[in-house]
């Protein structure tokens, strides 16, 4: 037997470890700032870069892609080498993965506060950064699959199955959802519009949770939990069911984010049914993880690593039971747009991803530095402070979410909304938001303890850049030794395994998305709906820049409680020119789809200058810069041309006359403001934003009037 000597690369693992700890502290700190702004809006210091609308996506990207992303790579690069008994396929690709990924994160940290965003949840980064993500992800995928192909171990361990599914599916999701036409260096419009854009986005968004926050971490669970407990995985057969059931079913579940919206009923029902089915494979995986600890529960009492891992797996089980529950239409009617959704997301983020990452860090560092963890006591303190932080964060927000949903729907005995003033509900929830911030403070404090412990551990040990190992080369006959059509046989065929995985994740997406584009009845045409005027286009882009979609929805659902509060429920045909869609996923403030014409122009001007002047008790921040900054009309031609390319029927050459039409509409708004005792110039950003807000939801009210609101293609 020819035994080969090789070396594992620990340098890139250490680099990802350090990045994980750093971004974990940054991402959660930004999240804490955002949480505090919900009851203390002045924390933005009236700066455009630190408003809730801009730092919320920054927090999301910093936690999901910076903290969890680096944590994922950290765990994969250590475990994959040892499971395959091979060094990573390419050191160059490994470092391209590290430096490229973290450069992307820095780019996100610079662009999002500047308001350079697509507004699409979990996919906010603009097109140049999207291209960079594609390049880096391809490098990671090639490195992963190349390592698997040159492995010395015959069978692919279960963790590798989840790594492969992650690499393939994230690539598909990212490319499909990011298809857009550039309208400038950091501006683009998605090729999809309205209902179609919403479906593609939440097919991506839900599965970004599934295949970025879940499947790679399940792979880490299957490796690090048995390692920490020194026990084999409870059931190999259960892991097979867990894997194939999860990746096939998960991809169908995206439409459950769009229940009771303008999405066709058949797509909503598909999303709900498959979401409920997800309970089975998800809980199969959770039980497989917890039962791995059989005979080792006494270790949990003393080992902080196992404490973190056990809570992580438990949180995974809680989140994957709650998710299908929230996907049931009757439950979703109460929960959607409320803080309940926020609590659900953070159960997974804080408990599953956060605690598992902490456990892996505490396990890895002593092995990277050939020493013991500097302080087990400090790690235990981190565990209990973090767990306390989770409780103080989650429980108030669950209460807040249920309270919101019930108050929105409450009627008096006379048939009127009991809480007709939306602000009455907002103010009622402020104590819960303060408790959430307290929980966030505890959680961030725990990460500070983690960083101190890891630093002192590194100082007390000696880093080993490479680890020497030996293993016999994999013979070709080894891969064909198993009986055909068994899973063991399939594990010896990584290419076939990858192809089957790709087919499993493609089916659901194709069945849901393709009919939405090919069957016209899914998006009925409304003759009264016209493209946005040039001024409204720029106003809509300002709405996107300021992150208004983070607090306001544009989707009135067909509930009496909503039609009484907002007006006529929203129709699919109203959004055919919306690139991107702006339905939102949270109502910190009221829905805006029928706000057009509801208030005079002066009300909107005063509201943006000082929200409390029109809405006493409002937690919305001030936007004084909109009143003083000049509207940049230079990109108008490029944006009109880009919108035409994605299907908006602007006539040829319209961009050449757009500026004149813009000025006419701006002058009219200035005149309206003057009648409201407000004097301003027509070239201010506030004018464009008012134009857009006053257009919302008006197309279906008076078709004759709206026919002249925007150009039409002849």
Description:
By secondary structure, the protein is mainly alpha-helical. Among the domains are: 142 residues; 181 residues, Up-down Bundle (Cytochrome C Oxidase, Chain A), CATH 1.20.210; 173 residues, Cytochrome c-like domain (Cytochrome Bc1 Complex, Chain D, domain 2, Orthogonal Bundle). 63% of the residues lie in helices and 3% in strands. It has 29 helices and four strands. The strands form two sheets. Strands 1-4 form a two-stranded antiparallel ribbon. The protein has a two-stranded antiparallel ribbon with strand order 2-3. Strand 2 and strand 3 form a beta hairpin. Helix 2 runs antiparallel to helix 3 and helix 5 runs antiparallel to helix 6. It is globular and about 90 Å long. The C terminus is likely disordered.
Question: What's a quick, concise take on this entry?
Answer:
By secondary structure, the protein is mainly alpha-helical.
Count of individual helical segments: 29
Mean pLDDT metric: 94
Say how many strands there are: 4
Alpha-beta content class:
mainly alpha
The poorly predicted ranges are: 704-714
Q: What would you call the quaternary organization? A: single chain
Rg, Å, rounded: 26 Å
How far apart the termini lie comes to 78 Å
Spatial shape: globular
> Order of strands across the widest beta sheet?
1-4
Which bin fits the share of residues in helices? Answer: 55-70%
Strand content: under 5%
Main β-sheet description = 2 strands, antiparallel
The name of the CATH topology of the domain at 293-473 is Cytochrome C Oxidase, Chain A
């Amino acid at each position: 037997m020819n035994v080969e000597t090789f070396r594992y690369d620990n340098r890139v693992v250490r680099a990802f470890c350090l990045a994980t700890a750093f971004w974990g502290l940054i991402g959660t700190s930004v999240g804490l700032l955002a949480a505090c702004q919900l009851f203390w809006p002045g924390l933005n210091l009236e700066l455009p870069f630190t408003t809730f609308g801009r730092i919320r996506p920054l927090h999301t990207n910093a936690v999901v892609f910076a903290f969890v992303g680096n944590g994922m790579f950290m765990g994969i690069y250590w475990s994959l080498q040892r499971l395959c008994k091979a060094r990573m396929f390419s050191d160059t690709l490994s470092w391209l993965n590290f430096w490229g990924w973290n450069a992307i994160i820095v780019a996100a940290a610079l662009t999002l506060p500047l308001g350079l965003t697509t507004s699409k949840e979990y996919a906010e980064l603009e097109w140049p950064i999207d291209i960079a993500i594609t390049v880096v992800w391809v490098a990671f995928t090639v490195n992963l699959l190349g390592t698997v192909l040159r492995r010395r171990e015959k069978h692919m361990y279960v963790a590798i199955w989840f790594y492969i599914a992650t690499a393939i599916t994230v690539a598909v999701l990212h490319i499909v959802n990011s298809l857009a036409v550039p309208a400038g260096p950091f501006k683009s419009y998605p090729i999809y519009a309205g209902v179609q854009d919403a479906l593609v986005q939440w097919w991506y968004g839900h599965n970004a949770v599934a295949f970025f926050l879940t499947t790679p971490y399940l792979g880490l669970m299957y490796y690090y939990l048995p390692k920490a407990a020194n026990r084999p995985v409870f059931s190999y057969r259960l892991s097979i069911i867990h894997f194939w059931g999860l990746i096939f079913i998960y991809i169908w579940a995206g439409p459950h984010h769009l229940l009771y919206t303008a999405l066709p009923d058949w797509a909503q029902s598909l999303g709900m049914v498959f979401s409920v089915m997800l309970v089975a494979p998800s809980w199969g995986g959770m039980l497989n993880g917890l039962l791995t600890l059989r005979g080792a529960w006494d270790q949990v009492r003393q080992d902080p690593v196992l404490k973190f891992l056990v809570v992580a797996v438990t949180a995974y089980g809680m989140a994957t039971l709650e998710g299908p529950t929230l996907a049931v239409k009757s439950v979703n009617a109460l929960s959607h747009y409320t803080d309940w959704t926020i609590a659900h997301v953070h159960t997974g983020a804080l408990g599953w991803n956060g605690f598992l990452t902490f456990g892996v860090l505490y396990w890895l560092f002593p092995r990277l530095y050939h020493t013991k963890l500097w302080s087990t006591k400090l790690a235990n303190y981190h565990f209990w402070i973090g767990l306390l932080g989770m409780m103080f964060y989650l429980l108030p927000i669950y209460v807040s979410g249920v309270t919101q949903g019930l108050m929105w729907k409450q009627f008096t005995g006379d048939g009127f909304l009991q809480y007709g003033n939306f602000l009455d509900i907002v103010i009622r929830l402020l104590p819960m938001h303060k408790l959430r911030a307290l929980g966030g403070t505890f959680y961030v404090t725990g990460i500070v303890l983690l960083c101190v412990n890891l630093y002192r551990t590194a100082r007390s040990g000696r880093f080993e850049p490479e680890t020497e190992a030996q293993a016999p080369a994999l013979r070709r006959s080894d891969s064909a030794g198993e009986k055909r059509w068994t899973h063991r046989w399939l594990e010896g065929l990584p290419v076939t395994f990858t192809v089957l995985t790709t087919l499993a994740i493609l089916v659901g997406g194709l069945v849901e998305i393709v009919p939405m584009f090919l069957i016209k009845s899914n998006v009925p045409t409304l003759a009264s709906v016209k493209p946005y005027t040039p001024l409204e286009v720029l106003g809509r882009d300002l709405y996107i820049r300021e992150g208004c979609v983070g607090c306001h929805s544009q989707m009135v659902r067909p509930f009496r409680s909503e039609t009484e509060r907002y007006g006529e429920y929203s129709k699919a045909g109203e959004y055919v020119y919306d690139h991107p869609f702006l339905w939102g996923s949270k109502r910190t403030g009221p829905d805006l789809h029928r706000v057009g014409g509801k208030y005079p122009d002066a009300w909107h001007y005063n509201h943006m200058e000082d929200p409390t002047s029109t809405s006493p008790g409002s937690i919305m921040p001030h936007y004084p810069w909109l009143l003083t900054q000049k509207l940049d009309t230079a990109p108008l031609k490029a944006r009109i041309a880009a919108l035409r390319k994605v299907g908006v029927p602007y006539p040829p050459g319209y961009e050449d006359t757009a500026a004149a039409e813009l000025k006419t509409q701006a002058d009219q708004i200035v005149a309206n403001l003057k009648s409201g005792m407000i004097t301003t110039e027509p070239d201010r950003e506030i004018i464009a934003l008012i134009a857009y807000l006053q257009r919302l939801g008006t197309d279906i009210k008076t078709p004759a009037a709206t026919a002249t609101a925007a150009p039409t293609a002849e």
